[in-house]
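Recap quiz, item 2
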Amino acid sequence: MKRSLGAHTVLYPAPVLIVGTYDAVGQPNMMAAAWGGICCSRPPCVYVSLRKATYTHGAILARGCYAISIPPERYAAEADYVGIASGRDVNKFDVTGLTPVRAEHVDAPYVGEFPVALEVKLLQAIELGSHAQFVGQVLDVKADEDCLNAAGHPDLALVRPIIFAPLATEYYGVGQRLGEGFVMGEALAR
Amino acid sequence: MKRSLGAHTVLYPAPVLIVGTYDAVGQPNMMAAAWGGICCSRPPCVYVSLRKATYTHGAILARGCYAISIPPERYAAEADYVGIASGRDVNKFDVTGLTPVRAEHVDAPYVGEFPVALEVKLLQAIELGSHAQFVGQVLDVKADEDCLNAAGHPDLALVRPIIFAPLATEYYGVGQRLGEGFVMGEALAR
């Protein structure tokens, strides 16, 4: 039996994305965003949605780019902290001890300790209400060698990204492998 | 040491979203989308990005709405099948035995057997290249009573959504609970 919960921002799984920018004086900053995802294949595009009040909002508009780092579950506390503090008040890299690494193709920092990073060039800032959606083109993906599978692709069991549950406001890790995409359902397609 | 993988649609975790629509003759259809997420808090907005070639693309534009159902891991094969077959050729509800349920607030079907459903009214169709991003307002969230926590919010450990890994093209389940959002990082904020 289903219960109506009302109009909420609910969708599972939501990601935990660490958005890296440089501010006006070149200080690296990062924020946590769960409103983000992939939105186009060609060109490869992703987005993060941010409130205007965030320090990152102005920084993305100023430099026309950002980096996304995927925090692994062992850094869940640091990732949560990044979503609590503001770069206006503190240098969150200093507080967490995480390392800002200048991206190769865009003027933004990613987190050296996190296994996967995306370098993103801003294409559109779409105003939706409380949040602006920053749609950008992925110029490069960088991943730690030791989290790649035999095909050279990031292995989720090694990347160990964090899963966010909106509304309940909880973090989870990745569980067991269920199967291969476009293969598991083949028997039904016959 | 990080390796450059090139410009790819990579972001972890990606969701598996079952997008429900009615076609021109009122037959229920569903497709699987991993390019989707939350993009605004007020109004509560989500999106799914679809190729023009999909049967669902025209159906969303025709009725100005869609439903999103969150498949649980025990239906991973069915969810994968929904991403393989086209509603132009087959009735995927018939093939899978899943039940289309007419949404309350929009003219679209959700999947009765899946624990969480969103009723979404189309706001904008944004052309990004290979994919159009269908941004919509969440009018209601419906969830199975038996997957709610004590606060009445969906419990991820009970919803058991599927996690998709782009590039590696694999599905995973949800693992252990890591902690509470805006609490885990508090020690660092002091």
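Chain B has a mean pLDDT of 97.
Helices of chain B lie at 55-63, 76-82, 92-96, 156-159, 186-189.
End of item.
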